[in-house]
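Exercise 7b. Backbone tokens:
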């Protein structure tokens, strides 16, 4: 059996600290905003404290011999792929003429969360099939996975011009293939550096590509690139930092707003069914601080630190990031159990966590993490059932042979 690793600080916790400081780089670099900077440090501190309680607060550990029914996992993967594809087809068939502009495509998804949330089931299905095929070794399934990855990547990169949706897919591929990588530290450093540079440059030229096309964009990169494109000052985390500063200032003047906690849990109910439900922090912030953007259907993302402060001030930051640090310290159990796709969702959530509100984290947990975890549970139990049946048959045969000999 394989158990969770016992490293001093788990990889998910280290990753969370890195992205936390990266997204809030502007808060840390801005000496004039001491309160926002202190909020980031307090959040990071209680992530570490929560991690330290890993040993003191036990959770039921996940043990596994990594025996899954590969056929069952492929079946689940196909179901996920079909559901994700159907969601894409239904949404974009209605808006086919409006997806070629990044801004228009973004605005089209506003208020359609009940459908958009299933878009990520397509990469989840691909990853399930990939992991199952490591045991099945079927060339036809490997080809289907490869073609699906290429089509999905091309669609999101060159048609929709979105980066976030590709992140889950490539995190999953890396996790599934990780055990087969030689020189892991070097390869991981090279891949991380290349991914960072690519995402930063893509963010810089997305608007140009939107207006001019692919070939002109390559020419533009060749003639206009400068090192400022990949500096943290150009990273979209500056908006996350802006939200934190604005929310702290507002909360200090108007008091805490604990209603936002209830709004987070309301998010699982589509606004189409409950038009008057409370706003999420992202919606409220855009409505309050950038009304013209909100009226056009746009919105800023969010900030988990800002939402914690908005709800309960410093107590909110302490509580939220203590729990986050504790749960991240337990995340390696998911990997140790062989639940690679579920672990990919965990890492994906950690990558985005600083710019997400509680509502988004609940959506990811309910519609991505829980279904992928459940898939492994069903596949594992199915395999264990077969194993028990085979063991029972073997025992019966052995007993029969021994009795005959005696």
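Sequence design result:
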């Amino acid at each position: 059996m394989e158990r969770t690793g016992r490293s001093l600080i788990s990889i998910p916790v280290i990753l969370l600290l890195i992205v936390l400081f990266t997204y809030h780089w502007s808060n840390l670099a801005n000496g004039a905003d001491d309160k926002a900077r202190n909020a980031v440090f307090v959040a990071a501190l209680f992530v570490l404290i929560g991690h330290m309680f890993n040993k003191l607060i036990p959770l039921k550990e996940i043990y596994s011999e990594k025996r899954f029914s590969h056929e069952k996992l492929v079946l689940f993967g196909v179901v996920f792929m079909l559901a994700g594809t159907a969601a894409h087809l239904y949404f974009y068939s209605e808006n086919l003429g409006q997806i070629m502009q990044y801004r228009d495509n973004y605005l089209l998804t506003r208020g359609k969360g009940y459908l958009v949330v299933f878009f990520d089931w397509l990469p989840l299905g691909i990853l399930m099939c990939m992991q199952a095929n490591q045991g099945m070794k079927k060339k036809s399934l490997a080809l289907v996975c490869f073609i699906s990855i290429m089509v999905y990547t091309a669609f999101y990169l060159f048609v929709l011009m979105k980066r976030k949706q590709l992140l889950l897919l490539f995190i999953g591929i890396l996790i599934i293939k990780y055990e087969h990588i030689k020189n892991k530290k070097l390869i991981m450093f090279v891949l991380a550096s290349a991914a960072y540079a690519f995402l930063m440059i893509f963010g810089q030229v997305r608007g140009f590509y939107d207006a001019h096309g692919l070939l002109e964009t390559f020419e533009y990169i060749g003639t206009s690139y400068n090192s400022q494109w990949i500096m943290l000052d150009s990273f979209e985390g500056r908006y996350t930092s802006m939200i934190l500063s604005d929310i702290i200032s507002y909360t200090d003047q108007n008091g805490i707003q604990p209603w936002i906690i209830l709004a987070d849990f309301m998010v699982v109910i589509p606004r189409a069914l409950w038009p008057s439900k409370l706003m999420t922090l992202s919606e409220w912030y855009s409505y309050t601080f950038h009304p013209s953007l909100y009226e056009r259907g746009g919105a800023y993302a969010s900030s988990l630190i800002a939402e914690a402060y908005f709800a309960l001030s410093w107590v909110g930051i302490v509580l939220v990031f203590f729990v986050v640090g504790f749960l991240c310290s337990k995340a390696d159990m998911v990997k140790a159990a062989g639940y690679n796709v579920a672990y990919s969702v965990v890492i994906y959530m950690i990558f985005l966590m600083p710019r997400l509100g509680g509502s988004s984290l609940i959506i990811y947990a309910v519609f991505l993490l829980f279904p992928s975890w459940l898939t492994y549970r069903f596949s594992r139990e199915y395999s264990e059932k077969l194993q028990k049946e085979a063991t029972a048959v073997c025992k019966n045969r052995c007993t029969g042979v021994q009795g005959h000999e005696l």
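Instructor comment: The chain is about 75% helix and 0% strand. The two ends are 37 Å apart (CA to CA).
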